Automatic annotation (TrEMBL):
Organism phylogeny: Bacteria, Pseudomonadati, Pseudomonadota, Gammaproteobacteria, Oceanospirillales
Organism listed in the record: Salinicola endophyticus
UniProt entry tagged with the keyword ATP-binding: no
Span of domain Metallo-beta-lactamase: 1-180
InterPro entries the UniProt entry points to: Metallo-B-lactamas, RibonucZ/Hydroxyglut_hydro, RMMBL, RNase_J_2, RNase_J_b_CASP
Keywords tagged on the record: Exonuclease, Hydrolase, Metal-binding, Nuclease, RNA-binding, Zinc
The name this protein goes by in its record: Ribonuclease J
Length: 533
């Protein structure tokens, strides 16, 4: 998540407003920033400035903006992504104000200038924030890509004109990596080399917002004699928005998804969402054999063209295990590191930027603590002062050439169900009389760490139930994965009560539950995990 506030003379602005998916919690809720304390402290932003359109920078704004009701300034691509989110939430969109890179916005007493940078999504910008008392550069996410596939390389002149800056608030994600980050054109060449050697279907998973990667894959498909298909609503929506704004002009017309099952495997290149193991994504459904329009088969290929976000290792590994059971070939950063190009700067790029800006102070942000500490060490070798380590919730004062902590706000996790709808009542907690019965049958396979569900969810009820089958399947997958059990009988015993509670929270009337767990291989030894898993 990203949300930074800058204040001067009791006036405040916000930079970015992102969310994260908590895959470590049941039902994978969304976590958004805690802003409950701001009103009481008089820290209500008078404007929001967006650096770029990634979810961890814009994903929470549609939830939080109603508390503020202020103008939102962003480049056109991010504005259109926000417009879709606002409309989904029933919010008015007249507060969304598109700006071009290299433009400035006067929000007294601030002057905020958008400075174009290269990143894995077009129209990314750093923000130069000037007040009568200081000049700060907020980098956002960036890299020095000498050969970006969309847009020009970074121009050093706007940064040099800002020098010296009092403070740079800077991306630390790759601060522990020597050298330069890989160019997007290099990742495209590596992808093409792998895809040319593939037989059967090829599915490539990347972030929907990585338009350069998507454009590259479209060109690779044309050169390799394959037709492109897009899987995942976020992927389809992102491509549509990009084409509306003049990007992806030479992207080949996608094959309708309902035709995928009829085309020869060698003619298909699928671009899919779900590289982080998101349970409701297109890639997860393919790995579980539950996609309604397509089944991957032995000999097909899946390419992960995205780095694993820290914390998502377990769902990604579960995803890959699903493909291994299908005898699908997997290509990822471990088998071929060149398949992905990071959107963040390595140490040589940080040195170059600081040579342009000549900052007096650095506040390392983004990444984990180890990355921020590596960033501190690098900056100090360049004579840049770095304050003591700060954490989320710290309020800092920039004055007299120093950056010092003033107070700390204790932030609370703010969790939202990804399926929450406006006006939907909360789940009741009182028992309810059973409304007929519900039978659920699950097919399970023993794994090294426990059990995993395969195939489609089978359920039947005596009466019509308003049951969200996808939500139930996602919950079951996560609960089963997190439940230690040596046998199917033991697993059923540990699953039955939590499943009843889930149904009670999601249905108007609680049915009488009948739960059947079936081994994937109907042999007695497969109903109990062996010592080797």
């Amino acid at each position: 998540m990203n949300l930074s506030l800058y204040g001067y003379d009791d006036h405040w602005i916000a930079v970015d407003c992102g969310m994260m998916i908590r895959q470590d919690l049941p039902d994978s809720p969304l976590q958004i920033p805690d802003v409950a304390h701001l009103a009481a402290e008089g820290m209500i932003p008078e404007a929001v400035f967006i650096t770029h359109g990634h979810e961890d920078h814009i994903g929470a704004l549609a939830w939080i903006w109603p508390h503020w009701g202020c103008p939102v300034y962003a480049t056109p691509l991010a504005i259109e992504m926000l417009r879709a989110k606002f409309l989904e939430r029933g919010l008015r969109t007249d507060a969304l104000c598109p700006v071009t890179p290299a433009s400035s916005v006067e929000q007294t007493p601030f002057t905020v200038s958008f400075v174009a940078v290269t990143h894995s999504i077009p129209e990314s910008c750093a923000l130069a924030i000037e007040t009568p008392g200081a000049r700060v550069l907020h980098t956002g996410d960036w890299k020095l890509d000498p050969a970006p596939l969309i847009g020009p390389p970074i121009d050093s002149r706007p940064f040099e004109r800002l020098a010296p800056v009092d403070l740079v608030v800077a991306d630390s994600t790759n601060a522990d990596v020597e050298g330069h980050s890989r160019s997007e054109s290099e990742a495209g060449a590596a992808l093409e080399a792998v895809i040319r050697e593939c037989r059967g279907r090829v599915a490539v998973s990347c972030f929907a917002s990585n338009l350069a990667r998507i454009q590259s894959l479209g060109q690779i498909a044309a050169r390799c004699g394959r037709r492109v298909a897009l899987l995942g609503r976020s992927m389809e929506r992102m491509v549509a928005i990009a084409q509306q704004l003049g990007y992806l002009e030479d992207f080949p017309p996608p094959v309708p998804t309902y035709d995928l099952g009829y085309l020869p495997p060698e003619e298909i290149l699928i671009i899919a969402t779900g590289s982080q193991g998101e349970p409701r994504s297109a890639l997860s459904r393919l790995a579980q054999g539950r996609h309604p329009l397509l089944d991957l088969e032995a000999g097909d290929h899946v390419i992960f063209s995205a780095r694993a976000i820290p914390g998502n290792e377990r769902p990604i590994e579960r995803l890959k295990n699903g493909f291994k059971r299908l005898d699908v070939h997997i290509h990822d950063e471990h088998s071929d590191p060149a398949l992905h190009a990071s959107g963040h700067p390595a140490r040589a790029e940080l040195r170059q930027l600081y040579g342009w800006l000549k900052p007096r102070l650095l506040l390392p942000v983004h990444g984990e603590l180890t990355h921020q500490e590596a960033h501190r060490e690098l900056a100090e070798t360049l004579g840049i002062v770095v304050p003591e380590r700060v954490v989320n919730g710290d309020l800092l004062a920039l004055e007299n050439g120093t950056l010092s902590p003033r107070r700390h706000f204790h932030l609370q996790p703010t969790l939202l169900s990804p399926r929450t709808r406006a006006g939907r009542p909360g789940a009741a907690t009182t028992p309810r009389r059973a409304a007929s019965s519900l039978s659920i049958a699950l097919t399970l396979l023993p794994t090294e760490t426990g059990w995993t569900r395969i195939g489609r969810l089978l359920w039947d009820s005596e009466s019509a139930l308003d049951l969200d089958e996808e939500a139930l399947a996602d919950w079951l997958d996560q609960r089963i994965d997190a439940t230690p059990a040596e046998s199917l009988l033991q697993l059923r015993q540990q699953l039955f009560a939590p499943l009843n509670e889930w149904l009670q929270a999601h249905l108007a009337k609680l049915p009488e539950l009948h739960l059947q767990l079936m081994p994937a291989d109907p042999q007695p030894e497969h109903e109990v995990r062996s010592a080797s898993g």
